[in-house]
Amino acid sequence: MTADTLFTFEELETAAQTVRRTVPPTPQYRWPLLGERYGCEVWVKHENHTPTGAFKVRGGLTYLEELAAGGLPAGLVTATRGNHGQSIPFAAARYGVPVTVVVPEGNSADKNRAMRGWGAEVITHGGDFDEARAFAAALARERGLALVPSFHPALVRGVASYALELFTAVAGLDTVYVPIGMGSGICAVITVRDLLGLDTEVVGVTAAGAPAYAESFRAGEPRPQAQARTFADGVACRDPDGRALDIILAGAARVLSVTDAEIAEAMRVLFTDTHNVAEGAGAAALAGLAQEQARQQGRRVAAILCGGNVDTSVFAAVLQGASGGPGSPA
User: Fold this and answer.
1) Which of 73, 113, 125, 310 has CA atoms 20 to 30 A from the CA of 37?
2) Which percentage of the chain shows pLDDT scores above 90?
3) Helix, strand, coil shares of the chain as percentages rounded to 5?
4) pLDDT digits (tens, 9 = 90+) for 180-228
5) Cβ proximity of 153 and 63 under 8 Å
6) Packing angle between helix 56-70 and helix 84-92, nearest 10 degrees?
7) H/E element, 255
8) How do 41-46 and 28-30 pair as beta strands?
9) What is the DSSP letter of 94?
C-alpha cells in the first residue's frame, strides 16, 4: 500500500467534513519560547485539544461512518492503551453500538476511567498492548463482535484531517515530527503531504524502549520486538503493522528513537514554554526535535502534540524531575 492508494484528496475532504461535524479544527501555534530554545521556528499542532484529548477521535468518527454505510454490527471490540479506546466508543455512541475495549495490565487508570466514561466496557488482559490485541481478536470470535483494528484506511483518513489543517494553516514547513504508535498519525501526515505535493520532510519518533518501527525502518522490513518498555504508552508497540510500515518506508525521511528521559524533558518543556499538558507520546515529537536541534537551526518545523491524557501522578512526578514512569527502561 502506498500513500496515493490509501485515499484520494476527495476522500480526505469528505473525511474532514465528517470530523468537523463533531470536532472543530484544533489550533496550531508558533511558540516563541520553543523557538528560542531550539533555534528554529516551532509550530505545535494541538491534538490535545480534541474532546477526547487526543487525535484518535478523528479516526473513530470516520471509521464508524464507514461501518454505518455498510451496516452496523451488533457490537465492537478493540484493543488499546487508551486514546484509540476512547475514540471508538465516542463515535459508536452516536449509532447506539456497544463497545468493548481490551487494555493490558497496568494500563493508565485515568485512560481506563475515560473509556468507561464514553460508554465502553473495559476488560484488562495481557502484559502489553500486543497481548491485549490478541485477546480482543479472540473475544471478537467468541462474542460475535466486529474487531476494530488499530490501523485501517478509514481510521487514517479521519486522522489525516489534522494534517490537512496543519499544512493548510502553515506554509513552507521544512520538517514535521510525528510520534509513532501503530502508525496512523505518521501515515496520515505522509499521505496528506504527498496529496498536496509538498516537499516537507516527515520524521517519525519512537521510544527507545519500544523501537519496533525504528528497527523496522532501518531494516526495510518488519522487525517485531520482544518487549515494549516505556512510560509513553501511546508509542508502546512491539509488533509493527506491515501496511503502515510500507507507507513509512516510502515517505518518511527517518525514524528516531528517544529515551524516556528525553520524553519526560519534552513534557516539562511543553508545560514550561506553552503551559500545555502532554502525555508521553504527545511529547515524543518535540523530544525528536530536541534531539535534532542542531540540524533544524533557522528552519520552520512542526511537532505533533498527539495527546494530553497522562495520569496525574505520572505528570506530577515528571514535573518534579522524574525521567519516566512505570515500565520505563532503566
Assistant:
1) 310
2) 93
3) 50, 15, 35
4) 999 999 999 999 999 999 999 999 999 999 999 999 999 999 999 998 9
5) no
6) 40
7) strand 254-258
8) antiparallel
9) G
